[in-house]
Give the backbone structure.
Amino acid sequence: MVNYDGRMGAAYVAGRAMAQDEVRRWTGAFAEHVPDRRPLDVLDLGSGVGRLTPGLAEEFQGRVYGVEPSDRMRAAAEQAPHPNVTYLKGAAEDIPLPEASVDVVLMFLSFHHFPDPLQGLREVRRVLRPGGVALLRTQFSDLMPDLFWYAYFPSAREVDAAMYRSLAATKALAGAAGLTPGADVVRIAAEEWRTLRQRYERLSHRALSTFEHLPPDEVEQGFARFAADAERDPDRVMPVYDATMLVLTRPSGLLTRPR
Ligand SMILES: C[S@@+](CC[C@H](N)C(=O)[O-])C[C@H]1O[C@@H](n2cnc3c(N)ncnc32)[C@H](O)[C@@H]1O
C-alpha cells in the first residue's frame, strides 16, 4: 500500500502537477461521457492534491466534493480553494455523502488504491443519482501502455501491471456493485507533450507508485541512466500515451438493486 501521508505526499505536487490547459483537456474529455445538462454535481473520489478538482467545478458548474483519506494530500488541495469545491476526509468504502447526491463520480488513478474495491463501487452507486455516471480513469493489466521509460527500470512494466485489474475483472466488479460498464474502454489523449529532460525532471520526483514497489538499487541505477540520456538529448520530444477510462452508469430503472 502506498503511503500518501509520507514521502509521496510531498513529492506529488512537484512531480505530477498539471498545467491549466491539460486540466481543461481532461475535463473536456470527461464532458463527452456525462449527461448534457448543467449544473452537474461531482464527487472527485481520491482527489489527492486537487489536481483536477477545481477544474471539475469550472467544467460542470455544480458543487464538487473532493473526498480524500490522506490528510497531507487534502491539506495540499486546500491551498488552492475554489468557491464550489469542498474537500472532505473520507474513503471510497464509506463515502461521507448522502445517497443520490451527485451526478458524476470521478476516480482518477485512485481505484487501484482502494483496499475494498467492491465496497468502494457499491458506495459510488449509492451516492450517484439514477442515470449518473462514474468515470473510472485507471489502467488495466491487459491494456498496459508501453511507456518509454520502462527501458530504464527492467521490472517496472511488470510491477505496474500487477497494480491493476484486467478489464474483464474490473467490469465484473462494477456489475456486482450494480453499475453498468460501457462496452468499450474510452481512450483519452490529454497529456502534455514533454521533452526528455522534462520527463526526467518530473519522474525524478518519484511521485509514481511504481517506484515504491521497485528494488532501491534498480531505481537508483535506472535514474542514473535516465539522467545521462536527458543530459545528452534534452530537447527530444517524447511520446504521449492514450489514457484508458471505463464509464460506469447507475441505471435509472427501478429493478436495479445490486445483488
Ligand atoms: C495516484 S493518487 C491520485 C490523486 C488524484 N486523483 C490525482 O489524479 O491527482 C491516488 C489517491 O487515492 C487516494 N486513496 C487511497 N486509498 C483510497 C480510498 N480507499 N478511497 C479513496 N481514495 C483513496 C490516495 O490517498 C491518493 O490521494
In short: The beta strands are 40-45, 61-68, 85-89, 102-108, 128-137, 180-181, 186-188, 243-249. Residues 216-232 form the longest helix (17 residues).
